[in-house]
Predict the 3D structure of the following.
Amino acid sequence: MRQITFSQATLEAMAEEMRKDENIFVMGEDIARQGGIFGQFKGLPAEFGFDKVMDTPISETAIIGACIGAALAGMRPVADMHYADFMGVAMDELFNQMAKIRYMFGGQTTVPMVVRAPDGMSSCAAAQHSQSIESWFMNIPGVIVVTPSNAADAKGLLKSALRDDNPVIYFENKILYKEKGEVPEGEYLVPIGKANVAREGTDITIISYSIAMKKAFETADILEKQGIHAEVIDLRTLVPYDKEAILQSVKKTHRLAIIHEAVKQGGVGSEIAAFVAENALEYLDAPIMRFGAPFTPVPFSPPLEKAYRLDSEKIAKEIQAKF
Amino acid sequence: MRQITFSQATLEAMAEEMRKDENIFVMGEDIARQGGIFGQFKGLPAEFGFDKVMDTPISETAIIGACIGAALAGMRPVADMHYADFMGVAMDELFNQMAKIRYMFGGQTTVPMVVRAPDGMSSCAAAQHSQSIESWFMNIPGVIVVTPSNAADAKGLLKSALRDDNPVIYFENKILYKEKGEVPEGEYLVPIGKANVAREGTDITIISYSIAMKKAFETADILEKQGIHAEVIDLRTLVPYDKEAILQSVKKTHRLAIIHEAVKQGGVGSEIAAFVAENALEYLDAPIMRFGAPFTPVPFSPPLEKAYRLDSEKIAKEIQAKF
Amino acid sequence: MESYSKELLKTFYYKMVKIRRFEETVERYFLDGEIPGFVHLYIGEEAIATGVCASLTDKDYIASTHRGHGHTIAKGADLNKVMAEIFGKRTGFCKGKGGSMHIADFSVGMLGANGVVGGGFNLATGAALAIKKQKRDNVSVAFFGDGSSNRGTFHEALNMASVWKLPVIYVCENNQWASTTPYRTTTSVEDISLRAVGYSMASKIVDGNDVFEVYEGFKEALEYVKKGDGPFFLEAKTYRIKGHFVGDPEMYRTKEEVQEIFSNTDPIKKFTEKVLAEKLMTQTELDEIKDKVEKEIKEALDFALNSEYPDPSEIYEDLYV
Amino acid sequence: MESYSKELLKTFYYKMVKIRRFEETVERYFLDGEIPGFVHLYIGEEAIATGVCASLTDKDYIASTHRGHGHTIAKGADLNKVMAEIFGKRTGFCKGKGGSMHIADFSVGMLGANGVVGGGFNLATGAALAIKKQKRDNVSVAFFGDGSSNRGTFHEALNMASVWKLPVIYVCENNQWASTTPYRTTTSVEDISLRAVGYSMASKIVDGNDVFEVYEGFKEALEYVKKGDGPFFLEAKTYRIKGHFVGDPEMYRTKEEVQEIFSNTDPIKKFTEKVLAEKLMTQTELDEIKDKVEKEIKEALDFALNSEYPDPSEIYEDLYV
Ligand SMILES: Cc1ncc(C[n+]2csc(CCOP(=O)(O)OP(=O)(O)O)c2C)c(N)n1
Ligand SMILES: Cc1ncc(C[n+]2csc(CCOP(=O)(O)OP(=O)(O)O)c2C)c(N)n1
Ligand SMILES: [Mg+2]
Ligand SMILES: [Mg+2]
């Protein structure tokens, strides 16, 4: 199959869906003239015009708020957040309006919109341009949260998101944009809410998503050499997360590790670990292990940033120590 | 000892600290003329003047942002958030500025301020005036988070917060305001970061904080009648949380339940459960149990709101079923 | 004045009295403990929603505030379902999930009250963006209070609407108070509409207690906006007669002060005096309308009182599609 | 012109050249891959920070932006530590934790660059509130870009400062661009300072490429603010000569266009021509300053290059007190 980048995969998903549904449009800062700061919108205005691909003022509350209003009035807006770090600016719109409108109005309406949020560490972008804040949204009923880890999922999940009648937050990792992968042409949907058993194994379940899937695979490779066969699960969707897939795997492997780039404390790993400790504790042969960032903001300087990152050697070593 | 309300206890803490430290002042909506929507600032302007107790515009970003700026310039500001639900409006200020300033500037400065956030369900205040969002802040390095559950702690933790050189978020539950309790006069500090073993027991550890401590006690009472002696721990501080106290108790009781009013998924219980599953799994004789709100916004109508609340009978029953 | 059709005059009176009587009823039942939560009354401000909505159709949108009953009724929402929602009944617009602060009727373009002050600016702006994209001949209206004009959302919405020339009208209900705070102590400008200058936006000030002035002002706004020249800012000066919410002890002002003001600003009194003096309507016509309203209110109340509460299991419905 | 002391003239030139040469150096080392992260250069806008900071002391505060090197240097921060920070070294102001976007020197009242556009408005306002409470005779300054004036924080800060009559000066660096977007396509007003009207705030527009005009304008602002009459809005018109960040492909404009504009706006050229023509300074004096700057830059560079990176264990330091 042809290989395209994660970024191209998102472009393909957008273009295909926009051709089919004239209600879709996208707005954000520097996405039209420039094509998005990571090139993820490049060429879109050429096909769809500046009316469907709109450069906005630096006004995140208006970007999200107006997308909600447009969704209520029949459109399917897509908002680009520039950096996930800026979601805090529009947090009220995201959690008090977007997430709650359908419920608090008793199901009278839907809010079909997609919030695209480039996240994660890139290269020394420091504390305010490197964050992964997906776990907050696990605690906010009313939104769907997806976190593609590769080009194919980037396309399939974005297409599903664009067709979903619920508000969807689409966290796209900045480093992944440039990663190539096999991506099916045309109609290719990855269902929301289903995890992907990315590698089968018998000895431990490693759960991850987004960029950290790389670390999950690396860790599995290292463990494999030591005779430990890890099953690697890509959550793909965080809200709702695939409880069945997790339980099934843990009941098979009797061990669990969760890996994500976000801060470990209060991260997605906490919810997954808690869920398993609640529902499959008796199957566990070893402590659950969480791997995530230290409890500090992301530091700037290269050696600090490097030390802040997940290290699969270290992860594998810690896992192995529990065998 | 004399009994005063939680609300009076916070007032006492404020007044005592303001008398000692002229750098403390407080700002928020309707706190001066009205004394705070829950009366929690009543009488403060009479003693300290409208210069120290300031009514602000409806501008949450300016309230938090200006408090940060004032803190950088040598003051010790206190911000009242009106309702914790409105923290989303100032989320960028809270997590990208307040929480990060000290770290990203390499420790050059401190941001000594207190954010007071009345939270929780009151009586049919519906989706945007009933929330408990403390768990988000467990994932945000750089803030201290305290959650008093009674009048004495309300005073002692607020005094500690007002003296702390770190930014502190002080979640004060709306229903607790009116609850009376014994509160020491004068100098009374509850240390930040230390949990309180509120009731000793041997058979299960019940961890809670804030308003849900009531449910924890109720649950313990019910269990007691069935011969189950529960140890009840009040976390008091969520960031940093008292890991030692938790481990010590779980190692003794071999069972763990966590109860909070906030949404269960992605709540504080997730972090606590995960922490124990990581560090004391081998001590556990039963699955960890989390009790929290269902995964929906808070509904308005009385029977819905009632069903949404924690129910100690049900909690006790579920716990007992695992014995 | 002769240019007003009898029908329109009747509508003005009907809507204003309907809102007034609705609010008085809500107040009573709230004080009796039969309505849960908070309620913020629109009493004294009826001329604004009435004068504005008289020119709107169901295809036009409004975004409302925490003080949303008047907007909802003026926009044409079914009174029974409004009342039932406020009582928390399953037959209400939101099936009891929303209540007073989250009343909405999407079928008539009423996009919802909002518990977050200043939450509606951007929603209305976005609805106007949709209208423009759909090339429809409609408009979107954001009702907002003086206090909310200090929120950042005000600024971001108005700038965006102006830049994109959106068909949205921002209607400021300057009732002089933001909760317990006189607006000028926290708002840095006397006429909030002056802020329109910063967005190159057209604006106008009207007497918000005079339904005719509101109606004319809004029609001007509507014509302007429909030309495609961009948004419009209409400031309606009024006064908050009741406490901020039902139960507000109102320590910050005296009853006398308020009554004195109300005697000069009551929009219904103003209207009645005018139409009678100028012989545009007869007392009988007014009374007939009043009776009709009385019946509707009674019916709505019966409907609400006799409706069932939602079943606890309904908590889990209506979250995701 | 004669009213300018030789010392002040020298300061103007010294600061502007120092910033220019600093930025050129940073650009070179960034392109060489020796500076990590992002850098946003202040080239072409030197007259603003220089003209403003000339009237400030270490007890006055400034809040800066993502484009903060110029402000930091103008405020008097030690060049070595600025450079070291941008290189990510332990000897930098933030011990390598911040970098270009988070450069700060609290010892001279520089409250930090900010990676969040519009993040500084409220911080500067709060610092002014502190000054007022402490009854000090100081001021606070918020530097901000044209693009950031569309953030809600702009609105909330300016309203609050006006209501409380705070000693804060909002200095708009209108460089015509917000990243890839010409400001007028997303900003609904030609002169951003017009927005001051909405806050009953005094304002003034100056040529931001003329250090004398900036200096005079800011002095006027300072005097106004120190009287206690409230905040001031100073708009300095300038032009962003370089790409938004180093490495920006600048697809949205031509090099020629920019060069043409720069030949008329370069604040250093403007200054030099003026002082030489009016014989306020000699070429020798200018050259001496240039040499001094060259030495300082070299020293700062040596300092940065020879400094150590922080140790990985330092991640855990400086979070909590
Ligand atoms: C973001 C936010 N901040 C504060 C509040 C609390 N609050 C509710 S109504 C109100 C006053 C609103 O004043 P105004 O906008 O003038 O509307 P009015 O009540 O006068 O109609 C306040 C402060 C809120 N609901 N949302
Ligand atoms: C809240 C927020 N939104 C978006 C960005 C991304 N961003 C960084 S600089 C910039 C343009 C800023 O323009 P302006 O305020 O005019 O300052 P200039 O770069 O021209 O100095 C943008 C959009 C950001 N850093 N923060
Ligand atoms: Mg008002
Ligand atoms: Mg600019």
Q: What stands out?
A: Strands of chain D lie at 61-63, 140-145, 168-174, 177-178, 181-182, 202-207, 232-237.
